[in-house]
Specification:
The chain has a domain of about 110 residues: Jelly Rolls. The protein contains no helices and 13 strands. It is mainly β. The protein has a 6-stranded antiparallel beta sheet, with no helix packed on it. The chain has a 4-stranded antiparallel beta sheet with strand order 4-11-12-13, with no helix packed on it. Strands 7-6-9 form a 3-stranded antiparallel beta sheet, with no helix packed on it. About 20% of the residues are buried. About 0% of the residues lie in helices and about 45% in strands. Pfam families: Cupin_2 (PF07883). Keywords: Metal-binding. InterPro entries: Cupin_2, GPI/OXD, RmlC-like_jellyroll, RmlC_Cupin_sf. This is Auxin-binding protein.
């Protein structure tokens, strides 16, 4: 952020990235915490089309997330439960195990628009209960990724595997 730039962003002015994966996942979204000068708080805006989800069902071990539904309606899959959501609802996703896994699904007829706010941890582990995957990632002090790995526990190795002298 430059010294003359105000720490204000209107999501309507953001350049949104449109992406699609398979038949169920699709969104137009943008991350904009950095535009506000934030380093330790992630902020995003998303628009999910009817019948789609913007991310797989997952839980974080470090980061907490908060979602604010701006317009549309959907279903908040949280742990073993599903909750109807609408404009004005605020959703929490605490860090934890599969009991805090979450995903938003658009069950309405118009795009589901929401803000996502999260801790921007330097290191994170995520689990994906539906697919049995996990994600491990870390970044350096400047925010550049240092390590990112997606796998399944079945691919683990012994602690000493590959070490010199073993």
């Amino acid at each position: 952020m430059t010294e003359t730039q105000a720490p204000i962003v209107n999501p309507a002015t953001l350049e949104l990235e449109h992406w699609r994966e398979g038949t169920f996942f699709e969104s137009r979204d943008a991350s904009f915490g950095a535009l506000l000068g934030l380093r330790n708080l992630g902020v995003g805006y998303g628009e999910v089309p009817p019948g789609k989800s913007g991310c797989p069902f997952h839980n974080h071990h470090v980061e907490e997330e908060l979602f604010v539904i701006l317009s549309g309606e959907g279903e908040y899959r949280f742990g073993p439960d599903r909750h109807a959501v609408k404009a004005g609802d605020v959703l929490g996703a605490p860090a934890g195990g599969p009991e805090t896994a979450h995903a938003l699904i658009n069950t309405g007829a118009v795009p589901l628009k929401y803000l996502s706010i999260s801790a921007n941890a330097a290191t994170e582990i995520c689990e994906y209960p539906d697919s049995g995957k996990f994600l491990a990632k870390t970044r350096d002090a400047s925010g550049k990724p240092r390590f990112r790995f997606i796998g399944r526990p079945a691919s683990d190795v012994d602690y000493w595997d590959g070490e010199p002298g073993i």
